Amino acid sequence: MNILLTNDDGVYAEGIRALARALIRRGHNVIITAPDRERSAAGHSITISNPLRVKEAELGIEGLKAYKINGTPADCVKLGVEKLIDFKPDFIISGINDGSNLGYDVLYSGTVSAAMEAWMIGYKAIAVSLASSSTRNFAYPARFIEELVSEKLYKINQAVLLNINFPDLKENQIKGVKITKLGKSQYEDKFEERIDPMGNSYFWLTGGSINCKKEEDTDIYLLNSNYITITPLKPVLTDYNTIELLDNNIF
């Protein structure tokens, strides 16, 4: 199969290289179009006021062509499909991200947004993330994704968008796979004020997650319970209930 890879950690990140190696070993044709540097939390932004520049990147993987782009993850998908590859991808995969993407995080995530862009233009798309700890075991998630696209998902004949998260554990420590829904992740935002060498103040966003109600059928709960979570996404933003409410009560 023809597979386009991207991410938001940058073209040289460990996760995307592990995934590329696994897919190439299976015999797939793989090309990478990824940011030239980390673009975490870039969301679904695209570049419209500055030029996009492309250079080949050498990742030391035989049979792999990789491009680094000075843009966002969504830029990398758009430019990759339109200008940099000479095939129609069977899959566009974003990751493996160094850190989980759960709940409301998908709205900030460059990893998920790249996959979402792929889905929007009609491709089967997967966002893959590892809930990284000190282990940072990318090898098993890479093998799992390779088997998933090679043996199961290739049968699906429509564009799908999947958000997949892995606990950072050995294979025999993972309890299984759960198809689930997004949880409700919340954060306590704190802005730490600091002073730069010129004496000017600036702010640095800090803070951590807030312990909210644990819903046992969500990606957050199940990942923390040592399951691989697969959440199908469908970006439909229209609030149909409020349309009815406004129609009936205002106009």
Describe what you observe in this structure.
This protein has about 250 residues and is an alpha/beta fold. Helices cover about 25% and strands about 25% of the residues. It has helices at about 15-25, 75-85, 110-120, 140-150, 220-225, 240-250, and strands spanning about 1-5, 30-35, 55, 65-70, 90-100, 125-130, 160-165, 175-180, 190-195, 200-205, 225-230. The strands form 2 sheets. Strands 3-4-2-1-5-6-7-11-8 form a 9-stranded mixed sheet, with helices on both faces. Strand 9 and strand 10 (about 200-205) form a beta hairpin. Helix 1 crosses helix 4 (about 140-150) and helix 2 (about 75-85) packs parallel to helix 3 (about 110-120). The longest helix has 13 residues, at about 140-150. The mean pLDDT is about 95.
Quick overview of this protein structure:
The protein has helices at residues 14-25, 73-84, 110-120, 139-151, 219-224, 240-249; strands at 2-6, 29-35, 54-57, 65-69, 91-98, 125-131, 161-167, 176-179, 190-195, 201-206, 227-232. The protein is an alpha/beta fold and 251 residues long. The relative contact order is 0.15.
List keywords for this structure.
251 residues; alpha/beta; 9-stranded mixed sheet; two-stranded antiparallel ribbon; 6 helices; 11 strands
Enumerate the spans where pLDDT stays under 50 for 5 or more consecutive residues.
Answer: none
> H/E series, N to C?
EHEEEHEHEHEEEEHEH
Q: How far apart, in Å, are the first and last alpha carbons?
A: 53 Å
Arithmetic mean of pLDDT: 93
| SS content category | alpha/beta
- Taking all Cα atoms into account, the compactness measure Rg is 19 Å
Q: What percent of residues adopt helix (DSSP H or I)?
A: 25-40%
